[in-house]
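Example complex used in Figure S2.
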Amino acid sequence: MTAERAGTTPVLTAREVQVSFGGRPVLAGVDVRIDAGEFVGLIGANGAGKTTLLRVLLGVLRPSTGSVVRADGRSGAAGIGYLPQKVAIDPDAPLRARDVVRLGLDGGRLGIPLRDRGERARVDEALDAVGASRFADQRIGELSGGQQQRVLLAHALVARPALLLLDEPLANLDPASASDIVALLDDLRHRLGVAIVMTAHDINLLLPVMDRVVYLADGRAATGHPDEVVRTDVLTRLYGRPIRVIRVEDRVLVSADDRGRPHDEVHHRSDVSA
Ligand SMILES: Nc1ncnc2c1ncn2[C@@H]1O[C@H](COP(=O)(O)OP(=O)(O)OP(=O)(O)O)[C@@H](O)[C@H]1O
Ligand SMILES: [Mg+2]
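Predicted assembly (274 residues):
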């Protein structure tokens, strides 16, 4: 279902990715192609395999079968900016926001002051790109959730990757902050040309900016422009059971088509993904 578009360059191509845990298939043949500067939304219910797929793309989880090919020829996490789903920040950590960002440059030199003017400029540039310069010298633990999210984005960006993999970057943000982060990401990919793959439960926040959606259910993916994928017929085929896509003004509501039961959003229903 992936549309090949003329004149675009893939930064990463994953083919027929299969992953099983303890004999249970989580991804059962997923294809993903990410083009330069593209904004890809990875959507699915809890447990659908979104984090698993991101870890495969990142090169830290080897699929049982299938391949991941990077245009830059690198392997592992090198050259990819990653924001994990669970980032535990110790509220008492003696680290300023800018120290956290610098760790994205060198990985392990915790607590060593900036020695290099070039490094400092890179950190300032990343902080500025995400609108975090204002609190760059505050301790990370005393920043709000939304401010920390910006700092973690700067951490993922500072090494100037061609690809950003963001796992639930909108979790725990109020709707206004979530919209701000989406707008920021859209701006970054246009300004820096970085391709972005991000997971989210609520597809609505991503609809205005997404070039492509990868919709995961039952280990399989439907991929394409949101208008091609977020449709009753396509999602019913993907889930293997009746699904309704309802458009209300500029929002979509995806629900199990169980007549007589309330139409909860599919992303919030564990039974749909089982
Ligand atoms: N390391 C692991 N060992 C065993 N099972 C795992 C492992 N990682 C993930 N799983 C299982 O794989 C399935 C998919 O998990 P994954 O974290 O990829 O889902 P997700 O779509 O990211 O969900 P969420 O929306 O809750 O973050 C789940 O059933 C999970 O229990
Ligand atoms: Mg996850």
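Residues 21, 26, 44, 46-52, 85 surround adenosine-5'-triphosphate (ligand 1) (CB under 6 Å). Confidence is low (pLDDT under 50) at residues 268-274.
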